[in-house]
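Batch job 17 of 40 flagged for manual review because the log was empty.
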Amino acid sequence: MASSLQIGDVTVPGRVLMAPMTGVTDLPFRRVASRLGAPYVATEMVASAELARGRPDVVRRAAVGEGLPLTVIQLVGRDPDAMAEGARMAERAGADLIDLNFGCPAKEVTGAASGSALMRAPDLACRIMEAVVGAVRRPVTVKMRLGWDENDRNAATLARHAEQIGVQAVTVHGRTRKQFYTGKADWQAVGEVKDAVSIPVVVNGDVLTLQDARDALEQSGADALMLGRGVYGRPWLAARLEAGLNGDTGPDAPDRADRLALVIDHMQASLDFYGYPLGLKMFRKHLGWYIEQAPWPADPSERRAAKARLCRMDDADAVARALSDLWQG
């Protein structure tokens, strides 16, 4: 497996990428994952119209900062002009890559004719791509699903249009919108997209282990893969899968002591970024995932109780002390 991925004039220093995830890939998480070796971690999904209006929480989602190998800002929306303006703002902010969301299945997104709803409005999707590609100099990419439903699996056709318009890469989640996250991602179907275009194709969906990564790449023929929910509580996963695909037989996760330090550092980074008490509130989902993935044997009920207890605490110092006591046994 090659050690880099070329997207336009940008060299991604690896082939295992982390997906944009609302409420997950904020700047503190991106810094943690990058420090652990992730070559590409996208921002949370950023609503272009609200970004242009300067809504504070949306601007925060697009936050850029030092310590990242790449800045990838993902935009969502249905208005070509607003998407173009959002892309210009992203470029001015320092984005290396600008990603367009044609894949989010959430009802609040598709109900606004955005995200994967654009899979059943290909003419509008093309107008959005044309507007964004024409507005910026940075490479534009698209993240999509296989289609809206089993009767309309049009990812290959839309990817061909994207390439003709000037999009530099596409990521395909191996499910339709109607599937949400049920069933199993169809990596072979992503291969139909790979066969349809000459730009890089990234396969996404259900990659949790090194064997999953190998199978997804083999079955799709994709140039790279993208991790989503598999990184919950495991921000080191991209780096470890990258190493595994390249023949490294090292440990697949930090040891207990290093992991505890990582969790506490991540919490402090969240407090620094958001302030208190919002930083602790925003970190709680990560704290819960870290506890679920903790490297100690425990009865599931005990683990659930520990997670519930720590996630109810409203004092960061108390959380750190309780976490240390729990972690060190």
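Reviewer: the log was empty due to a logging misconfiguration, but the result itself is present. The radius of gyration is 20 Å. Unflagging and moving on to job 18.
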